[in-house]
Design brief:
By secondary structure, this protein is of the alpha/beta class. The protein has helices at 18-25, 34-47, 65-73, 83-91, 108-117, 127-139, 178-186, 208-226, 254-265, 278-281, 314-318, 408-413, and strands at residues 4-7, 10-13, 16-17, 29-33, 53-58, 77-80, 99-101, 121-124, 144-151, 173-174, 191-197, 233-235, 271-274, 285-296, 301-305, 324-326, 337-342, 351-358, 366-369, 391-395, 398-403. The structure holds ligand LLP. Residues 58, 61, 79, 102, 162, 199, 202-203, 237-239, 275-279, 314, 318, 374-375 line the site of ligand LLP.
Amino acid sequence: MDHFLYQDGALHAEGVPIADIAAAVGTPFYVYSTATLTRHFTLFDDALDWGDHLVCFAMKSLSNQAVIKVLADAGAGMDVVSVGEYLRAKAAGVPCDRIVFSGVGKTAAEMRTALEGGIRQFNVESEPEMIVLDSVAQSLGLVAPITVRVNPDVDAKTHAKIATGKSENKFGIPISRARDVYAMAAKMPGLKVIGIDVHIGSQLTELAPFEAAYKKVAELTEQLRADGHEISRLDLGGGLGIPYTRSNEAPPLPTEYGGLIQRTVGHLGCEIEIEPGRLISGNAGLLVSKVIYVKSGEDRDFLIIDGAMNDLIRPAMYEAWHDIIPVVEPAPGLTPAKYDIVGPICESGDTFAKAREMPPVAADDLVAFRSAGAYGAVMSSEYNSRPLIPEVLVDGDQFAVIRPRPTYEEMIARDTLPEWLK
Ligand code: LLP
């Protein structure tokens, strides 16, 4: 469910007409709904209320500080994967004991910053990382709380580029080696083992892979406890998928997911952490764009819009589907048109949809991409020297720009010429 609905014939974000935002900030732009963000966070929080837990928003999916603050104010922790995200979370006011540091390639400098600034835990992904973290912590006279990310060798049944839990993926340590790795960690004075971490992939639309992974984690918890380790926290990752089309998809709900967690690991008495990104932010955002031209090709019509693959890379990168709807509500019974919907960038990959049926639109009409809150703005670039597009946050009947569009001058001024070229 989201808060982007037609009211009086016009698409709104909560109480604000999308067209009003477009008039104020220009197109293209991202717009996020506070009510949807908090609603989705609360669904997870409630789904785990049978026990001690923390929902850590995977801020890689949407990292604007205003969004982080909305979620942190609602009680969320943050899952960060770089020192940049760590500093962003802190800048947005997230308490450091609610920040979890994940990622396969943390550097010593990143570890130092997080240890000095305070951190809830590191999710360690390899023995070499463990050795470096131990030495950085010791050099600071600190002890780093850690979980070890295990790779359970489970098929997440999702797009290959976003599956992470198979043995061929770069993530975590093989679960078969976990006991040795925990034994090694226990001997390191700079580390304190507190739990286990697992994350098997993103946009999972079934519970079965989670179930397989969490059962393995439950078994491992018991083995590690028998080996003398104190396992008091389980970080179960993110990955629950969202419906990208209104019609035929119905991924499991957070309540069902919470029930699965209770059934598989609830008996262990551990504090539960989860790291959802997409399910909190995905349907909380739209990308709004304007039609530049409708161009007739040999055998098809092209809708050329002012948004492009640099603004939303998901269709080009993962063949992802986003519903694309007109901002003016189409009249009932209108015969749909069929378009290839493309951006202005100079490569054929800059295609959002092929032969897409949608209500007919014309030049200067606004269209909105649904489910664009997650992995939209954060993955954007300035390819073709197109400045990053603005982000807008709506709350009820108010809206604010939360990242302005840079001017062309600002974008260009970031380059510097070496002395010898001046
Ligand atoms: N935790 C870890 C360790 C992760 O690697 C990820 C996502 C998450 C949590 C959050 O997963 P989520 O709940 O959002 O599925 N750019 C891709 C998705 C990449 C996901 C990377 N890791 C896309 O646009 O589909």
